[in-house]
């Protein structure tokens, strides 16, 4: 059972603060189809990824059903919510794909860097050519996966900010890996390798990490209306593929053995 202290430790918010916030956004969504739709997306994301809105049982599918029915009855039109329901489904699918890909990709980054560190330590820094080349390849691939994961985050962060999805903040807080510390650990290992053998596999430019924070707001003009948001959000991250931070070498290879 999750306690108040657990919420504070994991998310930085008390159970009381979270419940108060959920009460507030539920009240704001009453009778407002856009906010109701966004609340429903947050509920579904929270359910799948085990976030506080779900674990606190504060907003559930039954509540959402009654809120939708109240809106439809007030409009006296059975189809009045149809467009919002379609967009709820669309946005949930977009977010779920980006989030699941992000989780897989960042986990692969962590796995590759950890394996690289272990390979060097297991061989006591005395690497043969095949191992040296293999580790360099692992680290190069890890940064390809990292860039892909940051593109996923561009979409997630854009949704979070454009339509105030607080639950996405909690998702990032819960699942984001500390890749920067791991890259710094590798850099230390590589420096020791260079000191011992004169050879360098390569180092990470840690200042180039987390570029999603630099980019995700820069094209918000494409998401500035309800219509534009749903027109552009699915392909939003692809608009940044040719940007300078994406093309920068985060892992700078050393020489060959």
Can you offer a commentary on this structure?
With 257 residues, the chain is an all-alpha fold. The protein has helices at residues 4-11, 15-29, 33-49, 52-55, 61-75, 82-122, 129-162, 166-175, 179-197, 212-215, 226-232, 244-247; strands at residues 202-204, 251-253. The chain starts with a helix and ends with a strand. The model has no long low-confidence stretch (mean pLDDT 95).
Strand count, sense and barrel status of the largest sheet are: 2 strands, antiparallel
Structural class: mainly alpha
Strand order of the largest sheet: 1-2
The ordered string of helix (H) and strand (E) elements is: HHHHHHHHHEHHHE
Tally of helical runs = 12
Helix content: 55-70%
What are the segments in which pLDDT stays under 50 over at least 5 consecutive residues? none
Averaged pLDDT, please?
95
Terminal Cα span: 53 Å
Roughly how many Å is the radius of gyration? Answer: 22 Å
* Number of extended strands: 2
Shape: elongated
Percent range for β-strand residues:
under 5%
SSE topology sketch:
Elements: H1 4-11, H2 15-29, H3 33-49, H4 52-55, H5 61-75, H6 82-122, H7 129-162, H8 166-175, H9 179-197, E1 202-204, H10 212-215, H11 226-232, H12 244-247, E2 251-253
Antiparallel strand pairs: 1-2
Helix pairs in contact: 2-3, 3-5, 3-6, 3-8, 6-7, 6-9, 7-8
In short:
The protein is an all-alpha fold and 257 residues long. The protein has helices at 4-11, 15-29, 33-49, 52-55, 61-75, 82-122, 129-162, 166-175, 179-197, 212-215, 226-232, 244-247; strands at 202-204, 251-253. The model has no long low-confidence stretch (mean pLDDT 95).
